[in-house]
Amino acid sequence: MNRCLMVAVLAVAFCGLYSPAYSASAECGLADVQVAEMPDSSIRHLPVRDGEPLLNSGNGAMQPVQKRKASFSFGFDLMSSYVCRGAYQTGASIQPKIAVEYAGLEFSLWGSTDLAGTDMQEVDIALTYKYKGLKVALTDYYVSGNALSWGVEGPDGSKRRPFRQFFDLNSRTTPHVVELLVAYTVSEKFPLTVSWGTMLFGNDFDDYGRREFTSYFDLYYTFKVLKSIDMKAGIAGTPWATTLFKTSGFEITNIYLHASRTWEIKDSFKIGLLARVICNPSRDELNFVGGLAFSI
Fold first, then answer.
1. Residue 60, Cβ density class (10 Å: 0-12 exposed, 13-18 middle, ≥19 buried)
2. Domain range for residue 137?
């Protein structure tokens, strides 16, 4: 527990010593999306130069109208271990990702497979909408080897057994869990974010087969160190007892400090370094995770 307090003190100290600066998340690797200045239906009424519609910028100069464009990105991370929301999952892992975004709406796939070749495998499918400081995400978590099957006993007599039935959508036997998450960031100048996610469907039951509506809250702040290192400090946990997070009530399960540095090599190809200190007071655990990130 003392180690957890030290992590929290370091996080607060960093936030106080360095002024906040907004930056895109190094974890998602998404390119910026150009947002339209006006509806496409109005463009045909604007003056044209070299085939491009123009708009008065406010100082008398005519500037080209920005059109909505979709962005596409993909990449993968190599992590020394996989720790999810404060809970250790498995050892060294490769974590691919792919995303398409248009006008604030994003469809993404994220996965994790441990390099040791155990049964731990995860694929997350998410649909996210972002508008100014608001983010709403619906995520399907598919985790094989970590599901509960009610009424069906595994080889050892327990109800927990490996799953690979991706298309099994029976809430009592499916390896899927669907979460609705809402997050809000105060502003770019003060990037404090609060989020709340609740499991609405899938394998989320207590020992008696009752749905738990497992929820997770997160409060974090992003800032920069030395103008090029992206930092993220936060505290998170569960508001009530859950089987998924193995908590007995309101508990803090994640006190963390993340650091990342990204370099653009050529033609939007990026390489990043990641380091994360993650403390789980609920389990009295401390994890220090490092990794490499590659994205386009």
1. exposed
2. 2-45+67-295
CA distances from 90 to 58, 79, 83, 95, 224 (A): 55, 10, 7, 12, 30
- The tokens describing 214, both together, are 């497992």
Residue 279 falls inside a structural domain: yes
229 in a domain, yes or no? Answer: yes
CATH of residue 15: 2.40.160.40
> How far lies 14's CA from each of 27, 85, 224, 235, 275, in Å?
20, 21, 9, 14, 15
Residue 58 domain flag: no
Model confidence pLDDT, tens digit, residues 205-240: 888 888 999 999 999 999 999 999 999 999 999 999
pLDDT tens-digit profile of 234-277?
999 999 999 888 899 999 999 999 999 999 998 889 999 999 99
Question: Would you say residue 291 lies in a domain?
Answer: yes
* Token code pair at residue 188: 């770019």
Question: Which has the closest alpha carbon to 256: 4, 80, 1?
Answer: 4
- Collect all residues with Cβ–Cβ distance below 8 Å to 155 and sequence separation of at least 6: 161
Cβ atoms < 10 Å from Cβ of 266: 6
Q: What is the spatial distance between Cα 79 and Cα 62, in angstroms, rounded to a whole number? A: 48
Number of domains into which the chain is organized: 1
pTM of the model: 0.74
Q: How far apart are CA 205 and CA 226, in angstroms?
A: 46
